[in-house]
Design a protein that fits this description.
The protein has 157 residues and is of the alpha+beta class. Helices cover 25% and strands 27% of the residues. It has helices at residues 45-56, 65-83, 126-133, and strands at 24-28, 31-38, 88-95, 98-105, 136-141, 146-153. It has a six-stranded antiparallel β-sheet with strand order 1-2-3-4-6-5, covered by helices on one side. A hairpin with a 2-residue loop joins β3 and β4 (98-105). α1 (45-56) runs antiparallel to α2 and α2 packs antiparallel against α3. The two termini are 17 Å apart. The relative contact order is 0.20.
Length: 157
């Protein structure tokens, strides 16, 4: 793991109601935020989340950074929807120098990076991708459940 979960994180401006499923793309000053409720086992939410993140990041970072962010976000969203059998909440916060994406679910079981079972197996690579491509990532427990997060700087590493 590149980084252990640390407290705090970027300042977040704006809000939306996760309870109602309301989405928000809030822009205040130089902080941009996306918050989206993901329904249980709703795998069509994966490409929708990528599209919304792409729109949020359209003027952010060096070439290739937003594509990495989309890939890692889709991995975290897919993991939350497939492995928890519960709802999840995606939050992305963009500042001029970096991005933090967090997917919160309501199951306390911690994810563990693992390689695929065979060369033909496409399962099990998600957290390995996050571990290798993110500048930092981690798992933060909540009262009920956890958040899996990653950070990317705007500049290529």
């Amino acid at each position: 793991m590149k980084s252990q979960a640390r407290g705090g994180g970027p300042a977040v401006v704006g809000d939306s109601s996760a309870a109602t499923g309301e989405e928000a793309d809030t822009i205040t000053g130089r902080v941009h935020r996306l918050r989206r409720r993901l329904g249980r086992a709703d795998l069509k939410a994966v490409p929708e989340a990528r599209r919304e993140l792409r729109e949020l990041l359209r003027h952010w970072g060096k070439p290739g950074r937003s594509e990495i962010a989309e890939l890692l976000t889709s991995e975290l969203v897919t993991n939350a929807l497939v492995h928890t059998d519960d709802d999840a909440v995606l939050t992305a916060v963009v500042e001029p120098d970096g991005l933090r994406v967090e997917v919160r679910d309501f199951v306390g079981r911690r994810p563990e990076p693992r390689g695929p079972d065979s060369e033909d197996d496409t399962h099990g690579r998600g957290l390995m991708l996050v571990q290798s491509l993110a500048d930092a990532w981690g798992v933060r427990p909540h009262g009920v459940g956890k958040s899996v997060w990653f950070e990317l700087g705007a500049e290529a590493a």
